[in-house]
Specification:
alpha/beta; four-stranded antiparallel β-sheet; 245 residues; homotetramer; eight-stranded mixed β-sheet; 34% strand
């Protein structure tokens, strides 16, 4: 089976091109770049029509833009809040479920010791396997299993991106270390309400906060100094709880 | 000189108490907890008046709440965006300036290989030294120097939280690796405009995006399901550029 | 009983002073303005200490700032949305309940033919009477009655600012003209859900939209070009329905 | 020339149809409604295929949705803020420029005594003439003239929706009554800065505030209780100043 790769990126003014493989020529509307030129790791390459590109080795941020997308992919603003509101760091053990495309698990695995991600749907599990290839990392363990079978203990942070996280509170609390965080990511207020209501029956769990965030891009150049007209009105509500005993 | 410490946290319903030292009794309005009880790393402790608390070892997220504050401290939502929009990871070398209280440098050092932070003002440098003690980490290098003297090379990400970042573009570009990111964090649109205008004169730098974000907390409980009335209307604009050659 | 009045306003750089009566001298920290000087309707007046003020006749916008406040006062952004999303105009008959301080009823009475406002709590009814004096208008009818006793028919718009608007749907639908709007203003999502759920059992009512809005002030001057730090995170959700038969 | 009209609206579950004329049959994808049936002012009509619609006389809110659009049309949230932040009421004389499609002038004419609107571009002036026909109102005076030729005096509110409002400050201040408001509506922060800078050279004008607002629609039904994904990230900055002498 072919590996999912991104080997180079090409910049030209406001355009960016993603080159999956340096083993063959790369075609654009401005002509093609020869595979031998694609071997360069920086500098300038030219197409057969004379168009110049800056060539670069992609990094994880570039990989994020090229993730294979199945379900809705979580935004970077939400990944950032989840990571820093729970103090995830290089020593952290993180569990997430469901994996989906793996976007969250992959980004968190870049900054933590190990991420273990549960996904019951086979097609998403397979999708995440491909995306893990793209990132080329080793500390993300993908499991095609229901979170009910969680075997990890002493976990720092658990993140649930699934419609009914309240079905898994017992398992999560048992897996968390004292002081560890349980995070749920939910689109509807009714789900957040149900989730918090169920959690309050657990005496060893305390609700810390529920947050939402907005992200707005600006156009700043010679002629403009204003926000973009396009903006995402909603992604999800992040609810953070903590195991206290 | 006394070390700046946070050794335990105590939870009680919606209250949280921060215990700086387990070497002496801790007093609250509900009575005091004896120092011997504070040695516990989890479980329940009682005050002399019978009030129960859940006791825990603090983590980095707790440390963040107890940072000594001099200048305005950057918010976690902004730290999250800076980290993930630039793909910072366990192998990253990050430079920031000015250090200020060290909040950004400390949080980024938790997820990267090494952070080097420049600060010209002695009092902030000293403040950051104290805050580094609190975090107890070794991969944050604090320099009481002007960023003009930056000696690092092949840097993945540089973050500038200073009023005139355009004075340092040459130094930053030289320090960055090809494909690395230059991030500025600025409160005023006029500064963002000036910054981008100056950056466009550098042919090896490309403006990726300028963003702002909002963070809103919700009250969800038996009686309420609504956003909090308090909200921060503004923190700063994040401008991200990239070295392309 | 003394009338509630605002007879003049005084501007000085960034300060504004509200002069309740021109029948007596007005005192400020910069000295006092003599009552004879306060009779001026425009121009400049001086305090005994030589401080200059611009003097003006107040308008309705100024009155709004000086409303006696009992319950939470609805914001202008929300009044604006309610008015324009329902097409209120000089020929409109509007009903609102509960009156509260009368802020909404007063502002809508400025732009419509007549507003009839219901309030069961005597103390708020009395407060609204005082505020109507301040505005000095005649087309706002205040009723110290439960909306259950609504006698109006062929109403263009009904606005409910009360905790359980679903108790009054039958009365509202009967009072509205075909094509007229029923607006509810509610702080909690759970109330909005309950309200819409109840409304859907009425075959002659259709849910048009539910909206929330944000308002952010900016600081623009020689030194600043940024949003204010203070911002209201939440006021209320506006739900608009329409009688269709 | 044919008049621009909207004579009936038809509701069906979540769909709304706009019937321009009752002088001919109205066709939909569900069949057509006979012109004789369209004469009804309320109740139910059926298509030849048996589909039922609720029929209604349109109001100004419906007209707003059917405005002929040339330039960007100002949003209702912004119209609402402009109207209520300046206390516009049934006795107000309002001037606006440039007219554009006339959306702002039309909505303000519904709630004020008279609106006079200036537009230099002939094609927009003609567009506004058509839109005024749709509204069928008499208190909006459209002028195909540069605002430099403003003849009105003692004006309550002037609203400028044009790229260089600073070219007209002298004319506006002269036209305003003492205590009257000058409002500018601008997309870029740089324009707002320039505008305020120019205004500060006028000693009889004081900057009151600069605001922006956001509008977010929610999906609330049996299955959902969340904001819509689509949201407008930016419309314009509203700057309000006041003539003080």
């Amino acid at each position: 089976m072919k590996k999912y790769k991104l080997e180079r990126i090409l910049y030209s003014e406001n355009r960016i091109f993603y080159v999956p493989s340096i083993e063959k020529d790369f075609h654009t509307q401005y002509g093609f770049v020869k595979k031998n030129d694609l071997k360069k790791k920086s500098g300038i390459v030219k197409t057969n029509l004379g168009k110049k590109f800056f060539i670069m080795i992609p990094n994880y941020r570039d990989f994020f833009d090229k993730l294979l997308r199945g379900p809705q992919i979580i935004t970077l603003k939400d990944i950032g809040l989840i990571a820093f509101e729970t103090g995830i760091n290089k020593e952290s053990i993180v569990v997430d479920a469901g994996t989906g495309s793996g976007a969250l698990a992959l980004m968190l695995s870049l900054i933590s010791k190990r991420v273990i991600s549960y996904e019951i749907r086979k097609e998403f599990y397979n999708l995440a396997l491909k995306n893990r290839e793209l990132f080329g990392i080793k500390n993300l363990i993908l499991k095609n299993k229901d979170l009910k079978h969680i075997s990890e203990r002493n976990v720092d942070v658990i993140v649930l991106d699934m419609p009914q996280p309240w079905d898994y509170i017992t398992e999560c609390v048992n897996a968390l270390k004292v002081g560890g965080y349980l995070v749920t990511y939910l689109p509807n207020v009714s789900q957040v309400m149900k989730n918090i209501e169920e959690q309050t029956t657990f005496k060893n769990l305390i609700h810390i906060k529920t947050i939402e965030s907005f992200y707005r891009e600006w156009l700043i150049n010679e002629k403009q100094s204003r926000p973009k007209t396009e903006m995402l009105g909603h992604t999800g509500f992040i609810t953070i709880s903590r195991r206290i005993i």
